[in-house]
Write a structure and sequence with these properties.
Length: 268
């Protein structure tokens, strides 16, 4: 029995028979900045998400569009693909990753969405790791991080064959290139399987990349069909989503099905 099966048994006791249908409500304008007031990122995000509740389960927030409406990802969508975030500013990359995780917590009980985090900066994720949605937080150099890849790969296989169901799992990776450097061939093969097959089994890899030059390495990046990245043009083979990075560190553009959306982090 792996950590996900154990967590499912515990969550079934905490949230028996939880429904995935709670309906929707009108989406409100984002909260304006308070004059002379400085908010912590977490509090600003919490306030904004409170202003747009309720939303359907499996919703994850990417950011706020210029018209004030949220840009959401639906983790129940089997057409979703692995997502790569690449931006010049570290704060932008990490801010977007943290926003996704924090919105997952605020919009979903842990019986609907859980997440695991692989990061070289564990101390920077104390807030995100404090929720029951967080199954684990690991350094890429830990043996347990490689074991996690094997566990997730097995979970995906079980879900494909109908032997395992349960909550969506966000596989959050900060600095994916460093993580890959520490993988042997077997772990890398399973990691590629997760990138390719995970989203259809509600295992969603979302990763940040620090080095723009690494994006030219097609060994792994070809599996990220959804990208939010800084400048340049994406390979022609990328058709699910593509984006460019705006000048302000808190603002992004992303294209879905040919439509370009401007959005920003609610805390900016």
């Amino acid at each position: 029995m792996n950590r996900f099966q154990i967590a499912l048994e515990l969550l079934d006791k905490i949230y028996p028979g939880s429904s995935s249908s709670i309906g929707t409500a009108d989406l409100l304008q984002p909260l304006p900045d308070a004059d002379g007031t400085s908010y912590h990122f977490e509090k600003r995000i919490e306030n904004y998400i409170d202003s747009i509740k309720p939303l359907p389960y499996y919703s994850v927030l990417l950011g706020t569009c210029p018209d004030g409406l949220p840009l959401l990802i639906d983790l129940a969508n089997s057409q979703l693909s692995a997502c790569l975030i690449q931006a010049r500013a570290k704060d932008a990359r990490i801010g977007l990753l943290k926003l996704m995780l924090q919105s997952a917590v605020q919009l979903n009980p842990p019986g609907i969405i859980q997440y695991v985090i692989v990061t070289p900066h564990i101390q920077e994720y104390k807030f995100e790791s404090s929720f029951p949605h967080c199954l684990d937080i690991l350094h890429p150099g830990q043996r347990e991080a490689s074991e996690l890849v094997m566990e997730l790969s097995a979970l995906i296989e079980q879900r494909h064959t109908g032997r395992q169901r349960g909550p969506a799992v966000i596989f959050a990776i900060e600095g994916v290139e460093r993580f890959i450097e520490m993988m042997d061939d077997e772990i890398l093969s399973h990691f590629k399987w997760i990138l390719r097959e995970g989203p259809a089994a509600k295992v969603w890899p979302v990763a940040t990349a620090n080095d723009s030059a690494w994006l030219s390495d097609q060994k792994v990046t070809s599996f990220f069909d959804t990208r939010i990245e800084s400048g340049g043009h994406l390979p022609a083979s990328v058709n699910h989503a593509e984006s460019s990075y705006a000048s302000n560190a808190g603002h992004f553009q992303v294209s879905f099905s040919g439509e370009i959306y401007d959005f920003s982090l609610p805390a900016h």
